[in-house]
Amino acid sequence: MPDTTVTDIAHAVRQVAYPLVGATSDYEPLMDLVGDARLVLLGEATHGTHEFYEQRAEITKRLIQEKGFAAVAVEADFPDGYRVNRFVQSSSGDLAPEEALEGLRQFPGWMWRNTDVVNFVGWLRQYNDTLSSGGSKVGFYGLDLYSMYTSIGEVLKYLDRVDPEAAQRARDRYACFEYFEGDSQEYGYIASLDAEESCRDETVNQLLELQQQTAKYFQRDSQTAANEFFYAEQNARLVKNAEEYYRSMFQGRVDSWNVRDRHMAETLEQLMAHLGRQGMSNKIVVWEHNSHIGDARATDMGQIGEWNVGQLVRERHGKEAVLVGFTTYTGTVTAASNWGEPSQVKQVQPALPDSYEALFHSTELPCFLLNLRSNNQAVAALRQKRLERAIGVIYRPTAERQSHYFYACLPDQFDAIIHIDETQAVEPLDRGSPQETGEAPETFPSAL
């Protein structure tokens, strides 16, 4: 489509876009696109937009009910996600979704402690409760790695129960971190300057020992033992990868970004394998920011050597993975101005003229779905690289171009895109809560 104007491209997009009007049949084309895929990655253009959470929840409900998806994996720390998992599977003492989400108060708490997530977690609990006694319950899991010290505690708690002698060996290894008094960022800074201060070998050896005892720990009983071991093993793996992350954080953005996204992709693979071993469906829905689930090779990220979950998943699973991005033109967003500050409702500036968002705004469709795997003029025209906006937990409207835009080729980045022209801020459960110290905040230091 050479020498086409924005108006021409917008017209072509309008002809093939599927308007979303709030009907139950809205996402039929997306269900067709998913087909028998085992992984559906649902993005978001911000970490604080109500419609992105709401629509991901509605799509996920259909994937669970119609396609047999067995788990939701999100951009949250593994121990905190697993507390929610226990709640939705009726195996915890938490009495309500708000209580199950208690571990996610740390900045930026609104990412997961918001009314949309509460509603979805409540629905997931009710859905599981309606299943027959032998039915496989749908799970909820975190993929991220910021909880290094919390995960150390969970490994020790598990070993204290099943193997006290192994627990003492683990304490001896993890004692390496005690000097830093729970401050993972301080550990990373010191370890990056002095390799002798690194606890790398101890974390690797602890994970290896735990894995070598798999058969022994599984003798206790059946599925409960398998689930408990999986939880402990993933926490030990998280400690190993988080140790590397915090060291790399002070060596450059590319290194730390790659360690983090490799960990999330690795955790996703381990979760699929675990569900498969239990005789369950290993189809999983992933909720993360566009910058994590869109293929990095199609963006500026790939040009500087960064990879992400979407790229790693595509390389491994090909067409069995469906990547869905979300965009918006304007509205409001819940975000902070600086790290650790309380969230605010901020006005989202109209998208820059050379962006995909501005192009989609020109279609005059308030909300639509576009299949980017289709072979048509609209998708061909969208292959010309354009700006794309990414708002994380920090939003600085006065620095839009520098802080929140990058170049991308949308049809190579995603399999489908959902554009909602005007969006509203997500509603946090907690307002004005100060940042807690110790573990690094979610998304630090990239804000995405």
Can you walk through the features of this model?
The strands form 2 sheets. Strands 1, 2, 3, 4, 5, 6, 7, 8 and 11 form a 9-stranded mixed β-sheet that branches. The protein has a two-stranded antiparallel ribbon with strand order 9-10. Helices cover 46% and strands 14% of the residues. The model is unreliable at 434-438 (pLDDT under 50). It has one domain: EreA-like (biosynthetic domain) (EreA/ChaN-like  fold, 3-Layer(aba) Sandwich). By secondary structure, it is of the alpha/beta class. The chain is built from 20 helices and 11 strands. A hairpin with an 8-residue loop joins strand 6 (321-335) and strand 7. The relative contact order is 0.19. The two termini are 34 Å apart. Helix 7 packs antiparallel against helix 12 (223-248) and helix 9 (184-193) crosses helix 12 (223-248).
Short description:
By secondary structure, the protein is α/β, with parallel strands linked by helices.
Binned, the helix content reads 40-55%
Number of helices: 20
Q: N-to-C terminal Cα separation, in Å?
A: 34 Å
User: How would you sum up the major sheet?
Assistant: 9 strands, mixed
Rg, Cα atoms, Å? 22 Å
